[in-house]
Specification:
single chain, alpha/beta, FAD/NAD(P)-binding domain, Guanine Nucleotide Dissociation Inhibitor, domain 1, seven-stranded mixed beta sheet, 20 strands, 19% strand
């Protein structure tokens, strides 16, 4: 099988795409219809659906505002409110550090992200903040290798082409390219037909006929629209990020995350070898960014705040600490912003029946990130890799992804990387420091994590491993397909301001840095003092 695949791509693809035919030149950009896709996306279409409503919020610039959680969403909102002129914003953090699901570990002179670590450059607000606080440089994360099985790795395009050929029962790589490009064009057309053009993460609420078109799971949507050719691209773009299997997750989550522009950039990266993608890392680390914002913007962030419960009356937000209601352990605020995962605060905040009816449907997944020093072992040509066979097997808490930050930052790839010809750090030592990510829908035991990594290590010749840091996160608290099709994300937005409260962060939108920042800006856009 391996030999056949090597011959297939080395001969068939190169010959078919690079060798001119007698009648015309065949080029990759033509076959993938890049120009046609760009033209389609350049023609504006008005956003469809119900317009976002205006929402209520803090009543004056001196309102006392409590933000629950020094998550990225909480720090960003505090900063934006202060820039708007709000003078009394307090961030209450139960833990002993800021940053929430951002956790940067510095090792061998390099930052390694155990939590939020990537962002897409389409979010100009993140770039502006990085520039304003002089926290650059940023660097493209670059290409990724794909392991279809544990025997060999491939680049992403050959992997997708082989899958397309298998689905079409046709061994011609041009057929695979045509089928893949037509599927992309159809997806883009349907996506724009349903939602139109819109900015940010959350589109206006679709009307009933359009909402029926996005009912069910991602897999349901693809099959319903004769787009099964895109199942594997979705597993790469969506499932490999830890967001779950496409036959379990709501179609709307997939459509929100895999946008037409995202597919355009994917196609562009296949054609332009100098294009290192749209996803970037922050060389100094995101933990340092949030700390710098708090310090330089002089934000009032209070850590180790052990909140026992919060009672909201029509005029006040009463925050109680240490399990008592004595006056000295209570603070009073005018407005509350919940940035923490709503599934974690249902037992803390005095939720109304409306809030419980929505947020009780949230279910978390779990991501474990480990920073490990190991010998090089068998490596792919790229310092990032997806282990697609673990995705297909659905082995809980198996390794789905790893990244080598030092090699990403120094653009070490190809045979230099795969053969371990270059040291793995500034210290010149010949071993690697990698972040390994394991995912599952249930909270993992220590044995789950150890066995998942040991299985991986045995397959790749990793004989020495030292775990330097490890963290298991509540990751991607989400609604099921039925709740998403019922419009709960838009119900939450309509509820903003209810009981003098805003709800922000990943559990009310989507678990990525770009999306929580977009959601904050959407709230501020529709709030009038």
């Amino acid at each position: 099988m391996l030999l056949w695949r090597l011959v297939y791509f080395a001969v068939a693809v190169c010959y078919s795409l690079l060798k001119p035919s007698h009648s015309q030149d065949v080029s990759l950009d033509k076959v993938l219809q890049l120009t046609r896709l760009r033209e389609m996306l350049s023609e504006p279409i008005a956003a469809k659906g119900e317009a976002f409503p205006n929402i209520t919020g803090p009543k004056s610039f001196d309102s006392k505002i409590a933000i629950l959680g020094a998550e990225p969403a909480g720090i960003h909102m505090a900063y934006k409110l202060k820039k708007l002129g709000y003078t009394n914003v307090v961030v209450l953090e139960p833990e002993d550090r800021i940053g929430g699901d951002s956790l940067t570990v510095y090792h061998r002179g390099v930052r390694h992200e155990l939590g939020v670590g990537h962002f897409r450059v389409e979010n100009t607000d993140i770039l502006s903040i990085i520039q304003d606080f002089r926290m650059g440089p940023v660097q493209p994360i670059g290409d990724v290798s794909v392991w279809p099985d544990s025997d060999h790795a491939e680049d992403l395009l050959p992997y997708l082409l082989f899958d397309a050929n298998q689905r079409s029962n046709d061994s011609n790589p041009l057929t695979a390219l045509n089928l893949l490009s037509e599927a992309v064009m159809t997806y883009v057309r349907i996506h724009r037909q349903i939602f139109g053009d819109y900015d940010g993460l959350l589109m206006p609420r679709p009307l009933t006929p359009e909402m029926q078109m996005v009912n069910g799971t991602i897999e349901d949507f693809l099959k319903r629209n004769d787009l099964s050719m895109l199942e594997t691209p979705f597993r790469v773009l969506y499932t490999a990020q830890g967001y779950g299997d496409i036959d379990k997750r709501a179609a709307l989550y997939g459509l929100m995350y895999v946008t037409p522009k995202r597919l355009l950039r994917l196609i562009e990266s296949f054609i332009d070898l100098s294009n290192r993608g749209d996803t970037y890392i922050l060389e100094r680390g995101f933990s340092a960014l949030w700390a710098e914002i708090v310090n330089k913007a002089n934000l009032d962030v209070r850590v180790n705040r052990n909140i026992s419960y919060i009672i909201r009356t029509p005029g006040k937000i009463n925050v109680f600490y240490d399990g008592t209601a004595e006056a000295e352990t209570m603070e009073v605020y005018d407005f509350l912003i919940v940035a923490r995962d709503m599934s974690k605060v249902l037992g803390i905040v005095d939720t109304s029946w409306i809030e419980r009816g929505i947020f009780s449907h949230l279910t978390p997944s779990f991501m474990t990130s480990s920073l490990i020093d190991t010998n090089f072992g068998r490596r792919a040509p790229m310092p990032r890799a997806y282990y697609m066979y673990n995705i297909k097997s659905r082995a809980n808490h198996s390794v789905l992804y790893h990244e080598d930050s030092y090699s990403i930052l120094h653009n070490i790839q190809g045979t230099n990387y795969s053969r371990g010809l270059i040291p793995g750090g500034y210290d010149g030592e010949m071993y690697q420091s990698i972040v390994v990510r394991q995912y599952g829908d249930s909270f993992p035991s220590e044995d789950d994590i150890k066995s998942g990594f040991l299985n991986h290590a045995n397959l790749y010749g990793i004989t020495h491993g030292l775990v330097l840091a490890r963290k298991t996160w509540n990751y991607f608290s989400k609604f099921g397909p039925a709740e998403m099709a019922a419009g709960l994300l838009w119900d939450i937005f309509t509820l903003q301001g209810h009981k003098n409260t805003w709800y922000i962060g990943s559990s009310v939108c989507f678990d990525s840095l770009n999306n929580v920042i977009d959601y904050n800006n959407l709230i501020l856009q529709h709030f009038n003092l």
